[in-house]
Amino acid sequence: MSSKVFDCIVIGAGIQGSCTAYQLAKNKQKTLLLEQFVLPHSRGSSHGQTRIIRKAYEEDFYTQMMQESYELWAELEKEAGVELYRRTGLLVMGPEKSEGFSKLKDTMQRHKIPTVFLEKQEFNEHISNVNLSEGNGALIDTFAGVLYAERSLQAVQRLFQCSGGVLKDGQTVTGVSPGAVVTVSTGSAVYRGKSVVITAGPWANTLLAHAGLQLPLKVVKINVCYWKEKIPGTYSVDQSFPCFIQMEPKEGEYDIYGLPSNEYPGLMKVCYHMGSETDPDERDKQTDRGDIDILARYVTRCLPGLVPAPAVVESCMYTVTPDHHFVLDSHPSYGNIIIGAGFSGHGFKFSPIIGKVLSQLAMGQVPSHDLSPFRIQRFQSQSKSSL
Ligand SMILES: Cc1cc2nc3c(=O)[nH]c(=O)nc-3n(C[C@H](O)[C@H](O)[C@H](O)COP(=O)(O)OP(=O)(O)OC[C@H]3O[C@@H](n4cnc5c(N)ncnc54)[C@H](O)[C@@H]3O)c2cc1C
């Protein structure tokens, strides 16, 4: 039994917990970061080589948060001394008259985000080997790009430890007892913290059950598909091919997105922005490939330079809320238990700013961003707090 009381204990060392822990340590808080698996691991949501970073969103609040997030990524890069971001631009395509595409376009204009609007007749002068769908508009978020995910995660964890933080992996938290000082138990130790941050990704509800709370979260398995270029280099980052998002594709209900070939030369990552429900402890038992069929049809129609069958399929998970917005809030009954959850497949790019606001909540400060879109209260009719 350890008698030391930490200022904060962060549970879950994915990108959100690691960024939160780093912010706390930077603010001279005695911080413990606990992770159930031996690091690095590929069983949550933060592994893999790449993620998209962009300001192109329909909602003002995401675009606004991204302004500071870009600055914090640049700071992190400097502190870590490694490249974490590569600018590629992001091509957004979507039905010109749809609410989603119009909203995104308006948000970009309202916030004066550097954007190139592509007319249909000039589309292929700028973007080759992509067929723009009939009735679709297109724009480019010019400062968007690729984040090197695995490298970022390791850099943040390293910086956290260099700032005096304590990182313990291979420690599954099996109990959280609320109180003025929160007691956190693992199979082999008991820790105490003045505050606790729960950033457990797909396992959020398992952890929250200890504190009498359940959120309406759905965990889905994502088939991370890489498609072979018929002519190597066609969609390469070195040929300045951008990331892309296809809003409202004909083939399926959810968006399709892609990143230029980069981490695996000759292979382009193209994924469906939804998957089938899974138990996070039994992810690989979910074998549904309906999303891959949707992608194969899209690739055939719109990306003619790719072989329309995936060459590599990896696995990852999303933890999805009903409105696809995050949960960034304090526990409704215990102000010193802070929750970061439900990142719904788009949280990586925000992780430095999420780390900042979660650390502010843990330190009892007023968060520097308006967190009203992310409150637990919005699920009130669905969440049941038994305490
Ligand atoms: C295929 C894919 C593509 C994506 N693309 C993008 C993108 O392009 N842009 C973007 O911004 N975002 C993207 N995302 C989303 C982004 O990666 C996630 O939002 C983010 O990684 C979530 O991080 P997290 O820390 O909440 O979860 P995780 O990374 O899952 O971390 C949670 C951690 O908590 C640990 N844990 C759980 N329970 C316990 C316990 N009891 N005790 C101790 N530790 C515990 C887990 O082991 C895990 O390490 C993508 C996600 C996927 C899967």
UniProtKB/TrEMBL annotation:
It catalyses: sarcosine + O2 + H2O = formaldehyde + glycine + H2O2; L-pipecolate + O2 = L-1-piperideine-6-carboxylate + H2O2 + H(+). The lineage of its organism: Eukaryota, Metazoa, Chordata, Craniata, Vertebrata. This is Peroxisomal sarcosine oxidase. SUPFAM superfamilies: FAD-linked reductases, C-terminal domain (SSF54373), FAD/NAD(P)-binding domain (SSF51905). GO terms for molecular function: flavin adenine dinucleotide binding; L-pipecolate oxidase activity; sarcosine oxidase activity. Keywords: FAD, Flavoprotein, Oxidoreductase. InterPro entries: FAD-dep_OxRdtase, FAD/NAD-bd_sf, MTOX. Metabolizes sarcosine, L-pipecolic acid and L-proline. It comes from the Eukaryota. GO terms for cellular component: peroxisome. Residues 7-361 form the FAD dependent oxidoreductase domain. Its cofactor is FAD. It holds the Pfam family DAO. The keyword Oxidoreductase applies. Its EC number is 1.5.3.1, 1.5.3.7. Belongs to the MSOX/MTOX family. One of its GO terms (biological process) is L-lysine catabolic process to acetyl-CoA via L-pipecolate.
